[in-house]
Amino acid sequence: MKRTIAGIFFMLNVTGISICCSQSKISGGDSITIHKNFEKKQNLRKATKLPFYLISAGLLSYIDSDIIGREEIAEERNESIPDFHTSTDDYLQYAPIALAYGLDLFGVEARHDLKTRTKLLIKSELLMMLAVVPLKQITHQLRPDGSNYSSFPSGHTAQAFVAATFMHKEYGHLSPWYSIGAYTIASSVGILRVLNNRHFSSDVLVGAGLGILATNFVYLSHKVKNKKKYHLIMSPIYNDRNIGLAVTMRFN
């Protein structure tokens, strides 16, 4: 039981911090053109990479696996802690959001102003629900406790990872500990959903991936929308008297 739970926790507890970088390309002899389209592709790849792995792991857990096989984990849970129950996950899923707004009281400045980040959070929540709610209806999966057919994916876990990613986006650039704390809380929610016998491991892994993906997509869309498209060209200038550098910025 400890091994399987540790395996899920390791997969859920994502604490890596994305670093956006740009790349220069030498073209036209002495000219260096900075291509913003390349940066956009890189950002999109970073936004979808981790959710892809989590969702893939959740789908793979439907098959027989010694680490994250959903049936095996459910059986071990029922044998080891059949009477375990807590409602902590019902409140913990919103904790990163409360912490993020609470930091304002201590003068910690977020990446965006209050109005903007609230809009981004609302959009992330709506996008997450647009993915989770229909999937629950379409898949019609019975919960491990047999209570209803809304098991896949885990809404609690998706909510927790929306909240954690929101915290990471707004405060992770100040210190990695904000991100570590937020994702640890979100991972705990996923684990508690399994321990409470409300979800299979597949449900929480896919829920985590959807929560991160929704928030990443909203923030990436906001960045692209508010970022002017341009090409920067730097060319050396030289004649009999002077040597210099000409900088040309062309907006699309």
List the secondary-structure elements in sequence, H or E.
HEEHHHHHHHHEE
Proportion in β-strands: 5-15%
Work out the helicity level.
55-70%
Low-confidence stretches: 14-34
Helix segment tally: 9
Number of DSSP strand runs: 4
How far apart lie the N and C ends?
A: 57 Å
Biggest sheet, open or closed, and with what strands and sense? 4 strands, antiparallel
Label the overall shape.
Answer: globular
Q: Give me the secondary-structure category.
A: alpha+beta
Radius of gyration: 23 Å
Write the layout of secondary structure elements.
Layout: H1 2-12, E1 24-27, E2 31-34, H2 36-60, H3 70-80, H4 88-92, H5 95-102, H6 114-139, H7 155-171, H8 176-195, H9 201-225, E3 230-238, E4 243-251
Task: Walk me through what this model shows.
This protein has 252 residues and is α+β, with helices and mostly antiparallel strands. Helices cover 59% and strands 10% of the residues. The protein is built from 9 helices and 4 strands. It has helices at 2-12, 36-60, 70-80, 88-92, 95-102, 114-139, 155-171, 176-195, 201-225, and strands at 24-27, 31-34, 230-238, 243-251. The protein has a 4-stranded antiparallel β-sheet, with no helix packed on it. Strand 3 and strand 4 form a beta hairpin. The longest helix is centred in the middle third of the chain and has 26 residues, at 114-139. The radius of gyration is 23 Å and the shape is globular.
Quick summary:
Helix content is 59%, strand content 10%.
